[in-house]
Write a structure and sequence with these properties.
Number of domains: 2
Distance between the termini: 43 Å
Strand content: under 5%
InterPro entries: MetI-like (IPR000515), MetI-like_sf (IPR035906)
Oligomer: single chain
CATH superfamily of the largest domain: MetI-like
Structural class: mainly alpha
Keywords: Cell membrane, Membrane, Transmembrane, Transmembrane helix, Transport
CATH topology of the largest domain: MetI-like fold
Number of strands: 0
GO cellular component, one term: plasma membrane
Largest sheet: none
Membrane topology: Multi-pass membrane protein
Number of helices: 14
Family: Belongs to the binding-protein-dependent transport system permease family.
C-alpha cells in the first residue's frame, strides 16, 4: 500500500515538473520580452533579462515611440484589409467546396479530393519559386492582392474543417428542402451554412491568428514601405543602425496583444470547433 502511494506521489511530482518545464519554455520568452519592453538601454545592460525593472523604474517611452510611429496606422489598415478579404473568401469558397464534395457524387470526385489533400501535404517551400513566379506574372507583386491570393489558395485547412462538419449534417434536411421546392443554392445558404456556424467561427479565429502573426509572406511579396503589415512593421526596429532591443520588444508586445486577447477569449470555441469536426456521429 505504501509502495503504491509512493509511486503515485512520484508520478505526480514528475508530471508537475514536466508541466512546469513546458510552461517555463512557453511563458519565459514572453516575460523576457515584456520586461525588456519597459527597460532603457542602460537598464537592459545592467540587469538580467529575466528580471523586471525595479519598482518605479519602468520605462514607458518605448511604447510611446511605437504607438506614435507614422507607419503603425498604415500597418493596421493593410493588415485589416488582408484579413477581411482573405477570411471572406476562405469562408465562402471553403464552405461551398466542402458542401459540393460531401453532398454530390460526380465524375472524378475522388480525384478532386485527392488533389486537395495532396496540396495540404506538400510543404510550402517546395513550391515557393513557382508560386513567386505565378504571383509576379499575375501582376500582384508588391500589392495587397499577393498575400490575399496566397492565404486563400494555399491554406486548405478550412476545407478539411468544413467537410467534417458537413458530413455530420443529415442528408434528410436536403431532401426535405428539395421536396418543398428549394434549389441547391437556397438549401446551402438557408439551411447548411447556418449550421456551419461553429466551423466558421473556428476558421475565422484561426485565420486571424495565422495571418496577423505571419511575417514571411508580407515581407517577401510586399516590400514597399506603404504596404507594411503589423509583422513587417517590426522590421523598422530590428535594423543594425536604428535597432533597439527595448523598442523592438515594445513593438512585439503591441503586435502580440490583439491575437493573444482574441485567443484567450475564444479558445473554448476553437477547441470545441476542432473537436466537433473531428468526430463523426
Amino acid at each position: 500500500m505504501n509502495r503504491d502511494k509512493c509511486k503515485r506521489a512520484l508520478f505526480l511530482c514528475v508530471k508537475y515538473l514536466v508541466s512546469a518545464a513546458v510552461v517555463a519554455v512557453v511563458v519565459g520568452p514572453l516575460l523576457v520580452t515584456l520586461f525588456t519592453s519597459v527597460k532603457t538601454q542602460a537598464q537592459l545592460a545592467s540587469t538580467s533579462p529575466i528580471l523586471p525593472p525595479a519598482p518605479g523604474a519602468w520605462n514607458w517611452d518605448n511604447y510611446a515611440e511605437v504607438l506614435g510611429a507614422k507607419l503603425l496606422p498604415v500597418a493596421v489598415k493593410n493588415t485589416a484589409v488582408i484579413l477581411v478579404v482573405s477570411i471572406f473568401f476562405n469562408v465562402l469558397l471553403g464552405s461551398v467546396t466542402a458542401y459540393c464534395l460531401q453532398r454530390f457524387e460526380f465524375r472524378f470526385r475522388r480525384l478532386v479530393m485527392g488533389c486537395f489533400y495532396l496540396g495540404m501535404l506538400v510543404p510550402t517551400f517546395v513550391v515557393e519559386i513557382a508560386r513567386f513566379k505565378v504571383i509576379q506574372s499575375m501582376g500582384l507583386y508588391n500589392t495587397l492582392g499577393a498575400p490575399i491570393i496566397i492565404y486563400v489558395a494555399s491554406d486548405l485547412m478550412q476545407l478539411y474543417l468544413y467537410m467534417q462538419f458537413v458530413s455530420k449534417i443529415p442528408k434528410a434536411l436536403d431532401e426535405s428542402a428539395l421536396i418543398d421546392g428549394c434549389g441547391y443554392f437556397r438549401i446551402f445558404y438557408s439551411i447548411i451554412f447556418p449550421l456551419l456556424a461553429p466551423a466558421t467561427a473556428t476558421v475565422v479565429i484561426l485565420k486571424i491568428v495565422n495571418i496577423v502573426n505571419d511575417m514571411y509572406v508580407p515581407y517577401l511579396y510586399m516590400p514597399k514601405t506603404k504596404l507594411k503589415t503589423l509583422t513587417t512593421f517590426l522590421m523598422n526596429y530590428a535594423g543594425a543602425q536604428q535597432g533597439s532591443w527595448p523598442t523592438l520588444a515594445a513593438a512585439i508586445i503591441v503586435v502580440l496583444i490583439p491575437t493573444v486577447v482574441l485567443y484567450l477569449i475564444f479558445h473554448k470555441q476553437i477547441t470545441e470547433g476542432l473537436s466537433a469536426g473531428a468526430t463523426k456521429e
